[in-house]
Amino acid sequence: MTYLLLWYGWFRGEILAIPGRVIALLFFLVLFGAPLVTQDPYYLRMITLATIFALFATSWDVLSGFTGQINLGHALFFGVSGYMAGLLNTHFGMPPWLTIPTGALTGVAVGLIAGIPALRLRGIYLGLVTLTFPLILLGVFFTFPEFTGGELGISGIERLAFSRILSYYIVVAVFTLSVFFMWKFTDAGSKIFRVGLILHAIREDEITARASGINTTGYKFLAFAVSGFFAGIAGGLFVHYMRIAAPSMLELVFSFQAILWTIFGGVATIYGAVAGVFILFPMLELLSLTEWGEQSRFIIFTVILILTLLFMPEGLTVWVLDKLEIKCPRCKLVNVFTRRTCRACRAPLRNQEN
Amino acid sequence: MVIDILVNGLVAGGIYAVLAVGFSLIFGVARIVNMAHTAFYMLTAYFIFVGTTMLNIPLVASLILAIILITIIGLICFKLFFDRVKQHETTVMIISVALAMLFQEILFLVFGGHYTGIPPLAKGFVDIASIRVSYQHIFAIVTTGLILLGLWLLLSKTGLGKAIRAVSQDREIANLMGINVNQIFLIVMGISVALAGLAGAVIAPIYMVSPLMWIQPLTIVLASVVLGGLGSVGGCVVGALILGYTEIIVTFLVPGGASLRGAVSMSIMVVVLLVRPEGLFGVAFEEERL
Q1: Cα–Cα distances in Å, from A78 out to A63, A236, A268, A337?
Q2: Per-residue confidence at B290, pLDDT binned at 50, 70, 90?
Q3: Which residues of chain B from 224 to 243 reach within 8 Å of chain A, CB to CB?
Q4: CB of A306 within 8 A of CB of B99?
Q5: Does B263 touch chain A (CB under 8 A)?
Q6: Where are chain A's structural domains?
Q7: How close B185 comes to chain A (CA, Å)?
Q8: Residues B23-39 pLDDT 10s
Q9: Least confident of A9-13, A203-207, B13-17, B42-46
Q10: Mean pLDDT over all residues of chain A?
Q11: Between chains, do B257 and A305 touch, taking CB under 8 Å as contact?
């Protein structure tokens, strides 16, 4: 009983009092509860795909948002691990629970190779070089069609699980665990991991970070590996869910898509990437239901993006949270925007003139 | 075979050079990575297509109209989108990507996804050493040469060129010396887009016109600009020629190499960058601190 009360106290103080966390909690409740409400294959498929893409966008955020290593060819990790999983499954009959981790490890290996240019290049230069990697691979794939299926890709891949609901829950569970890990991994205020703080330091000023005795090379490789791992998981899940590994997974537009989703939601936040995908992807899918929307949905998509970038350059979630939350000027605790005084130290939250 | 490679490589390299010069110019002066650069090239091709086949304007007139129109559109895009966020390099880049996709989708909506063509300005061909070279190819090579020459003269011999180079070297000091930096940005953006338009006008009759035609040249332009050194106008011409020739040689000599040509050129770029991070002709700066 005491434990329950303690737990409730923690829950009230750490979750209910902070709007952002309430939203996150509601989001995960809805995500896990959705199959109880609707079992419509269309909606389940939409949410599953959004979940996979959210994982992909989040992994981009870890590498480019937090660590500042701009990667414009993020589809490389997704595509390589997807193709790997597909090949292992179709040629050697490996089950999904084996191919997806193998694919993710391939993603790590590719991430480490793609990280080599980051040792010498930075900023836009790095972005332009990483942009070419998936395109180079695409050219190689098209040259050896008997192995990779060429334009058609690899089809006939085993499905993730027997039932649709089980596939849904596998994807959602993997997503939740991965996002939680990435959130902790990049958390600069964490008292357990120092990694998040170091990644921030590398992004803000690499030379100072190096001068402070941080092995920036190692941490950059770590960021590439972690990002490659989770993008790889997303790729493996996608391939087993769609049952096809297609060249479109490596295309330029797909890399840009992850970036656009993340920038829309809010870069270097983790939750921004998730929110960006879960707002934009279903919106596009629902738009394509109407004939008018089918034709103009990408126009709407790009217009929304441009407007977001111009008027909310930090991203949607940052803008919204800025409206919903106030940080106490004295004790730095987060408060709801409706409060006048801080919930812990009673300090006035706003200036008293009005 | 050799003549084929020489002529086709010159054409491909020349086109890439005109596109890359415009891209490099606006990057060097205003630090704007304009991913929509080749989308302007695509728009020009479509304007010419509309002018010649739908409105029945004579080809030369529609070429000129298209270039003027695209320059105006480019300047509007600059004023509306790039100018506001030009402090953040990454934001500008993302906006330009979104802009390029917007143009692509509008073209899809208006013209559909199928391939179209534009009538060539110069019909017919001439035999050079028993190789047929069409007049349009010769015209493209000559125009490209003239454009590059004109640009070189503008940058090196005129007062405006001096101002542009001053701004690209140090924006603040140039401003202190009485150069209106924002005006220079606007002029350079105009030149850059007009160059993309010119490339579109010269090249569109040789290649197919489709709403996806901006992606392939974009990657090559990025590769040649990085290869030559970002911001170095001469360097990117050399880079573009190298990549143009590489493409053609791979297509001619490797069986089934058409799908591999982009991969080979980009691999060359990656290798060069790993050896020389500042590109072939770029200047290596000490690591910048802000």
Answers
A1: 14, 8, 20, 40
A2: very low
A3: 225-226, 230
A4: yes
A5: yes
A6: 40-256
A7: 19
A8: 888 888 888 888 899 99
A9: A9-13
A10: 86
A11: no
